[in-house]
Amino acid sequence: MNQPHIFFLPLMAHGHLIPMLELAKLFSSRGVRTTIISNPAFSEPIVNAQESGFDIGLKMIKFPPRESGLPDHMVSLTQFITDELIGKFAKAVDLLQEPVEKFLQESNPSCIVSDMFWTWTVDTAAKFGIPRLLFHGTGFLPMCASEQMWLHKPYKKVFSDFEPFLLPNLPHQLRFVRTQVPEFQQVEIESHFSKLLDRVRESDQRSYGVIVNSFYELEPDYSDHFKKVLGRKAWSIGPLLLWNNGDEERAQRGKKSAIDAQECLTWLDSKKPNSVVYMCFGSMGIFTHAQLHETAKGIEASGQDFIWVTSKGENEDKNEDDIPEGFEERTKGKGIIIRGWAPQVMILNHPSIGAFVTHCGWNSMLEAVCAGVPMVTWPLCAEQFFNEKLVTEVLKIGVPVGSKKWQQGPAEGVPGEALTEAIRHIMVGEAYEMRFNIRAKTCKEMARTAVEEGGSSYKDLSALIAELEHLKHM
Ligand code: UDP
Questions:
Q1: pLDDT per residue over 366-411, tens digit each?
Q2: pLDDT in tens, 143-177
Q3: Which of 20, 245, 364 has the most ligand 1 atoms within 8 A of CB, as the residue to mutate?
Q4: Residue 282 Cα to ligand 1 middle (Å)
Q5: In the chain, ranges of CATH 3.40.50.2000 domains
Q6: What is the distance in A from the centroid of ligand 1 to the CA of 53?
Q7: Which residues fall within 8 angstroms of residue 202, CB to CB, at 6 or more apart?
């Protein structure tokens, strides 16, 4: 009865749900009661976890709520692409406060673990006298960097889009250009999105603390900066994917794969160690027609074998295809194109994979770290430009493709030659063996050690559970 009972509120997007589910599994495996509050469109991975033996409760709350006026098919964050829609999304999320509180009233909660966009959970937690822990699903460096960007606005002090500026007060000298800062942040025009972000920031500051899907040894300077300089409470308990996932979950990870896992493994088995480039841009990355042509040109000219995952966002599940005509025939045997969802973790852990061309989503980046695979970094939006710096300048386990523009819609602007050069830099010649590969393998070892009994993440998780038990008895 005295066991803490944690309620998890993930956002409706696989990049957010997957790590939150892993977090719930982790607490559950350490004897903590867990319940995820989700909606039918995102219940499948949770039900799968239950079926594979995890004792995790699931409470379904309909999204979008009827009163929001949104059509029933608007279920995923990826569909809210205009500012007007974001306004409607924020209203719909607010409407869930009442049903969630009603449910919590009956459930004797001891803690809420919330995604940042559920801003009202900070008030709900206060009403119930319990802590609200935030789970952004990102790391310490991006959290520290975005705080300093917000505080100092260094992009206002440069005269052109191309003049680099230094982000002040951080443990490393990280430089950016203005176009890598989202436009909504630069222009400061009030919009639905900016209002939502203000609420996120305000509720963030009032939270009890932050659970971070990272491990101390990955970014020690930034973990210290977050706690000591920014004065925040935080626990690093990652990498979550290393804790308790079976092979099948690693193959699926969130959605059903668009390719037969065995077929993919057989193909990879036929390739030499470290010889295949894996290219994927998360659950949302989409590109213009012109960019897809450049990308095809770039990967072909690199001369490397590859797996390229395409057709995300709006095009997923449709028959539209922007891969240039003739490309597939020409690269037959050398490459596979996966249209839709790829079994990413399974692929990254295959010994034939030598490099990962990634948009630097935190999960993808961490999955590459855990697999010991060096990266070609191609950030698109969100906090990905900060994550790129961790990979290329702090850990030095990747090279940038030269992405200079923060863009949420169909992305463009990276010439094929830049991709060829970045891939060859990592894959060809001594550089691969000597530098990137060795450092990436060291990171992989550190990640494993962190989650073992006595490791840094293991200890931080124990400390957090002990604190929650203590708070429950107060
Ligand atoms: N993912 C996957 N197959 C795909 C695309 C993505 O398994 O084809 C998984 C990937 O392994 C990661 C998550 O989806 O766990 C994407 O999260 P990330 O933070 O990298 O990017 P986001 O989708 O949030 O931009």
A1: 999 999 999 999 999 999 999 999 999 999 999 999 999 999 879 9
A2: 999 999 999 999 999 999 999 999 999 999 999 99
A3: 364
A4: 4
A5: 5-142+177-243+453-472, 255-448
A6: 24
A7: 119
